[in-house]
Amino acid sequence: MLLYTEYITPRLSYVLNFISKELFDAPVVTTTNKEEFIEYGLPKLNYSTFELSEEDFFIQSTSLLFQKSISVQEIECFEFNYNKAFFQTNGDFPFDIFAATFYLISRYEEYLPHQKDGYGRYPHTASLAFREGFLRIPLINIWLQEFRKALQKKFPSLLFRHPSFKFIPTYDIDIAYSYLHKGWKRNTGGLMKSMVNGKWSSVKDRVQVLLRKKKDPFDAYEWLDSLHLYCRLRAYYFFLVAREQKSYDKNISPDKQALQNLVQYHAKGYTVGIHPSWQSGDDEILLKEEIEILEYLSDKEILHSRQHYIRLQLPVTYQRLLKTSVEKDFSMGYGSANGFRASVASSYFWYDLELEQETRLMLFPFCFMDANSFYEDKCSPNQALSELMHYYHAIKKVNGLMVTIWHNNFLGSDPQFAGWKEVYEVFLKEEIYWDM
């Protein structure tokens, strides 16, 4: 397909690359030559402010993709086939789908002034998706399906890609064990705290685990192995390997043999990634050190990452990752609510709005995290299952990518998370027939 535009900009090229990957077998070719475009005899798309002919598909452009600055945009949503859209224009499509897609996947609004949450993150309540009620659906994928139908109607001979639904299970290992391998100081303090609070069952459990008479309640690793084998799933494990345990970084030290063994074991059968500590969010050198530690332990180059507590600040976090070996990041989602932070259920390359360029960092958005469901939404296990199924059906409908986050402590035997392990097993074994 040939696309005419008055100006070719980095923003336009970027969004065309994304849409081409989602819809077509071949990339969209762009031209600024009006005569060449008019004479072209195959399917063609006019992306400008004026119509050229009835033979082309006309999308009236707005100004966003031709700007070179970051400024507040006038967003007014309207109903489009029972879903929201914005940047309404005239033409063969009712809105500027290129500009609207760019606005959402670039996370443009996160570069604008906003009030941060208690963890210093961009709050989901500030997002357009939350305010307009489309946080829980992959809106861009839905738009692209409608765009595809409109193009197909105009050009019946046009060839399209036929993507298939994909699922990636991922796990954050930021507290590998509840009691084991934490040293006598931390365990003594935990025992005293349980006694003071009258939690005698917790005291008993801790003692039995430390005496190796009972399995650690956060140890779900063998169970997960059998589940992945049964469902034929390839999982990703993200390890927190901070040497200093403080603030939100509470995993056992990577200097301990137990964590070393855990990393080495998972590196043999799964994809292992870095879970950058909270401390490393303010320290670029520490981030590189943690990646080096994980590379040493796993004996593999670390190409994948996900921020601990989803501590993601644009563009700083991703700019720092680009200075390391990391090529794929799984942090695009909220640490305060489930849903689609970038309104998309597809992987895509990150666009650095500050530098105005497409980068090599590929993002894999997640839609569901157990901690959001449990701590933020106060869901019961059955409610969490319903939520999981909502996202599954929403993504399956658009043949998108579904990424979930679980933590080992939710999937072990800790009474606090009773029923969550069973929910996850039901979700994978009984409700979903994975076509991997």
Descriptive overview:
This protein is an alpha/beta fold. It folds into two domains: 2-154, no CATH class; 166-178 and 216-431, Alpha-Beta Barrel (TIM Barrel). It is 36% helix and 14% strand. The chain has helices at 10-23, 34-39, 97-105, 128-131, 139-154, 183-196, 200-210, 221-231, 257-269, 284-298, 316-321, 370-376, 381-397, 420-431, and strands spanning 2-4, 29-31, 44-48, 57-60, 78-80, 83-85, 166-173, 236-239, 271-274, 304-305, 328-329, 348-352, 357-363, 368-369, 401-407. The strands form four sheets. The chain has a five-stranded parallel sheet with strand order 9-8-7-15-14. A hairpin with a 2-residue loop joins β5 and β6. The protein starts with a strand and ends in a 5-residue tail after the last helix. 41% of the residues are buried. The mean pLDDT is 94.
Considering the chains and any ligands shown, give keywords for the structure:
five-stranded parallel β-sheet; 15 strands; four-stranded parallel β-sheet; elongated; TIM Barrel; 436 residues; alpha/beta
